Amino acid sequence: MQIATEAHRLWLLNQGQRLLDFSKNARVADGFCALDGMGEKSRKAEADGILTARMTHSFALGALLGIPGCHAMSAHGVDCLLHHLNDPDHGGWREKRADIAGRKQAYYHAFIALAGATCKEARIQGGDLLFQSATHILETHFWSETEGVVYESFSADWQDREDYRGANANMHTTEAMLALSAATGDIKWLHRAVRILERFVHHLSRQHDYCMAEHFDADWNLLPDYNIERKADPLRPYGLTPGHFAEWAHLTLKAEAHAIAKMGRAPAWMCPDAEGLFRSAVEKGWCHEGTGGIVYTLDWERRPCVTSRAHWVQAETIVAADILYRRTGHEYYREWYQKLWDYVDLTMIDPKYGSWFNEVDAEGVASGEIYPGKADLYHAFQCTLSPLLPVAASLAEAIWLSKA
């Protein structure tokens, strides 16, 4: 059951094209960089590894759709990841080209694996090599077979492992592993994704009424005060992050769909747990103050903590609402889908300069407490694409299925 009418589908396609066009200016010699609110680079712009990986993936999706310019943009990203942002001495990738001593983050490497899988499917030059390199690093260093999750980070030489375990890195690794499974047909990646989901979604989130806790020590003890002095941290904020509840929800449903397609069955807990996470995201995260929207974080009493409205939070919740509606047929999800898109259209889409404000305040005014400018393409673009495609392990696989 599709939400999208023909007019809505055309609107989504147009919005996705505008996002891709806006981000083409992010290209620099060694990758992709952040853009300001008007879509301009700073004079000293340099490639950012996470943005490069996510834009490489996004442009590869555009290439699969047949959108001109996207193949070349994605090929540029692949080349830069292989030859500029890589670490030739120790393996893996640097977040900045000159950051020789920086830590190797699972979060970042998950996006490189995702980019590799998408570029492999889109037949981008160098995509197979990026895919092979990324999966080798993922298996060699980050994956813990004993625990069924990934380690968080290492020193540049892989000798020092961080004494911290986080939900965010494991969530994006789940996304990457589903894409790896789709790109290769190797269901070991699906089994690993399900192991991560079972720990975080089926066990940890249920312990907190489907509000996903984020921060743990190496022995999986909850760290409730983690980053209490840095509540608006862009990657590891204090408290609870409702946008992640929704993101885990739709990843669970994609894993369910992929498991049924590949094995004829999926764990019975997947859809009920996804529904629980979504309800927590919207019913606890939506703030009626000002123009509405889902806040960035909640405290442990489920009250708004960092009240800025991050664009990715709304985008991931839209994706979850659409997939849950298609999975269940319940009007509750269709109504939230419409409500969220109304909010995004009226507060986050910039009709003057293009793209989305990456963050707005309670009144819908562009702000920069967490995310200044318009650095991100990945979340918003995928939000415009997902409702147009079948539910599958990855958007690349969904595009292929839509062509069949």
| Main β sheet profile | 2 strands, antiparallel
Give the helix proportion (percent range).
Answer: 40-55%
Number of structural units classed as domains: 1
Shape: globular
What's the pLDDT, averaged over the residues?
A: 97
**CATH class placement:** Mainly Alpha
Number of helices: 13
Strand order of the largest sheet: 1-2
What is this structure, in a nutshell?
It contains 13 helices and 10 strands. The protein is mainly alpha-helical and 404 residues long. The radius of gyration is 19 Å and the shape is globular.
Q: What does this molecule look like?
A:
A hairpin with a 4-residue loop joins strand 4 and strand 5 (149-150). The chain is mainly alpha-helical and 404 residues long. The chain has helices at 6-23, 49-65, 70-83, 106-122, 127-142, 167-184, 188-205, 242-263, 270-285, 311-328, 331-348, 378-385, 395-403; strands at residues 27-28, 31-32, 104-105, 143-144, 149-150, 153-154, 165-166, 215-216, 309-310, 359-360. Helix content is 52%, strand content 5%. The radius of gyration is 19 Å and the shape is globular. It has 13 helices and 10 strands. It has one domain (6-396): Glycosyltransferase, CATH 1.50.10.10. The strands form 5 sheets. A two-stranded antiparallel ribbon has the order 1-2. The two termini are 19 Å apart.
